[in-house]
Amino acid sequence: MYTSACRTTARPSLEGIAQGRSLATAWGRVAERRRCPGVDGQTVGGFARNAEANLEAIGIALRTGAYEPLPAKRVTFLEPDGKARTIGLVSIRDRVVQSAMCAALRPTVEVGNPQVNHAYRPGHCSTTALDALSRAIAAGRPWIMRTDVRGFFDSIPHDLMRETVARVTDDAALVDAVMRQVEAQSPDPARGLCQGAPVSNLLSNLYLKGFDRGAQLRYPGVVRFCDDMAVACRTQEEAYDALAAFARALDKLGLAVNEAKTAVTPASEGFTYLKTRFGADGRPAPILGLTPAGDSPAVQEALSGRYGTPVQQLVGGCAVVGAIADAAASGAKPSGEHKSILLYTAGRLGSAGAAFATRALAAAPGHDAAKFRGRLAGLKTDVPPVRCAKVRSWLAQRGEQAVCNGCNGCHTPLAHVQA
Fold first, then answer.
1. What is the pTM of this model?
2. Is the pLDDT of residue 252 over 60?
């Protein structure tokens, strides 16, 4: 199996990233998202008061090699299962730089990106991962191997990450700039990507790109979402062979399978993947009582990027939001809880998020558009997004395990929006 990213022809550069237009576009994305301040305490509003001068200073520092990223501010909260989770809050200026880096690197990373990867990519989401696995089972692969990577983001070695980045650009200055961000914000000096940094999701996909290519060639029924992997196999022996092959390939990358979350089971017994229960028929159970088709105009527009990166990441990363939007846009009648979930997630992403939420509900029978617009207008977008305690409560009442099916029990669907 391949274990490293393959070379491509496009070559992004630090000089291009440091240009005023690139940084201004990145700043626009950051300003729309209104993230919390990092260790320096600077808010989006504070940066905006001198945005032109701040962007010019960032560009000069990048071009001269004088830019020094700040460490991330660590924030710990409890998962729905009671386990503690720590994320990093990146400073506004570093978020601008990383957003510009992502925009420059993403087209190169996407060239030849295997379709088995459904995380943090345009047109892909947790729902497409579930659908792909269901189709693989229906194609005559009744054995399921499931595993994930132990401490994935915290375990990626910096030396191998540097080598991987160098394969997609000939600009040594850009490689150094990316790795300075990684090293400044990682909790460990030698390994790890900061969960919460805009560039981390893209780099994680780049790091596993070669792994994905090898897995796809050898096991047609493979599906990956972040570090959650599943393979639909024709026989039990093939499933165990896939597990052994994955363990060997990950070991070469300095990673390891999480034995506590590894299992080989027949699909006919039912199983859980991405916090979604698959029935004996090999099909995923509805989310919040909804069975999304994934093809409604509102969802497809969001995944295509029409509403911008934050909305695309939200819909692509959170199966709950995607299911509600898809069902509503397809003519289903959303409950008050469903509308509130859209309100407190998409509606918190500024005008683009409000446009998406409005579009998703437009076709829903009995929807009071004027009332919903009034609720959107009443949201305070100049404060950090609320943590969705209400949403979690609604899901708990329905027996759901987490707000989102697309990651390991994220605190809120907004956790998927990185830049």
1. 0.75
2. yes
